[in-house]
Amino acid sequence: MGSMAGGTPTIQIPRWIQLVGLPVLALIAILLAGKVFHAVFLFLVAGLVALLLDPLVRALERLRIPRGFSIAIVYLSFATALVIAAIAIGVIVVDQSQSAANRIDSYLTNEHGQTSQTGFEQDVDRLQHWLDTHHLETVDIRKQGQDFAESIKGKDVEKYTSKAIDFLSGAALSIFQLVFSLVLILVVSIYMLLDMNRLKQAVDRRFPPKPGTPGLVVSMEKAVAGYVRGQVLLSLIIGASAGVGLWLLGTIGLVEGADTYAVLFGAWVAVTELIPYLGPWLGAIPAVTYALVVDPFSALWVTLLFLGIHQIEGHIVVPNVMGSALRLHPLLVIFGLLAGGELYGLPGILVALPLLAVMRAIYEFFSERVELEEWKEGVVPVEVDVEDTRPIQPVPPEEPPEARVAP
């Protein structure tokens, strides 16, 4: 073991361990992780949760609240907020879905005016007239639109909506299959939080931080907290932008009814924004689908709105918000997301970026404390017995004693 100029101890890894030991250990770790990958993943998630909540627990400890009670307060607060949010979102989704179904049913089936046409048929006629006046009369969408409307008229839209809601309710029941994993993550993270102070002290004794710099565990906590803050802020910005944009489109009449469901669509966009790369596209689907059903022309305005939001997100919001949170090269971020999805699907994608942030903190901490023994040029770090192949020289006969007497 050596030491840096500032007195921080360093570990020097010998050349023979670099050559043999590290590859063997890496291979063993990969094989073991493949056998118990689910358990490893759950412990990783529990560790990220513990690193995220530990600053809150420390803040309560500074108020002279015992650590055990602090952990209980933090978890109960999060559980209460999660239940309230789930109930509120569920009520809004069911209510707005039923209202939207009624509007779609009226748009497709209710006849009004002297022409005895539905709103859908009138919009199809207007679109066909626009095509005919712009030398696109070969495109005949009236027949396809009428066939689609007739097929809808013979069916009960509300009935199918109720079936969809029942399907979602049944799908929600399958979530209980994840209860064991969630409870295990909860229990493991609580144990980690209870022992976090001892872990910090042990790591700081073994690897003392530089004066004025945080220790390894605190650096990991800051990495996770920074990522979460950046991601939540990004979701709020994009969700609010989508909601305000749809409200404006509905208010000025470009997308009928969009102002009524702006809050619902904005909340959906904010939630899907938590999913890296796929989230922005998933967030636009409900709003664009609604616009297509209400008025095909209005879908163009909704599409342009989301394209503009995504351009602002990619060029302004993400570089400024997430750049300081991750401090990772974009190629490494993309690789981490692909690897996470390949290994564990959507949960792997959600865990990939905070895990990369923690790995960056670990690398920065140990890059100053671990050094590899230098390899001298032309020297092989393996002892080799070399046989002496030189011919044996004959030993001259020893002279008699009288011959060595001086004259």
The ordered H/E elements are EEHHHEEHHHHHHHHHHHE
- The helix-and-strand class reads mainly alpha
Radius of gyration: 34 Å
Number of helices: 14
> Which bin fits the share of residues in helices?
over 70%
Largest sheet: 3 strands, mixed
Q: Mean of the pLDDT scores? A: 76
Spans where pLDDT lies below 50 across 5 or more residues:
none
What can you tell me about this protein's structure?
- The mean pLDDT is 76.
- A hairpin with a 5-residue loop joins strand 1 (2-3) and strand 2.
- The chain is built from 14 helices and five strands.
- The strands form two sheets. The protein has a three-stranded mixed β-sheet with strand order 1-2-5.
- Helix 3 packs antiparallel against helix 6 and helix 11 (279-294) runs antiparallel to helix 12 (296-321).
- The longest helix has 43 residues, at 67-109.
- The protein has 407 residues and is mostly helical.
Properties at a glance:
two-stranded antiparallel sheet, three-stranded mixed beta sheet, elongated, mainly alpha, 407 residues
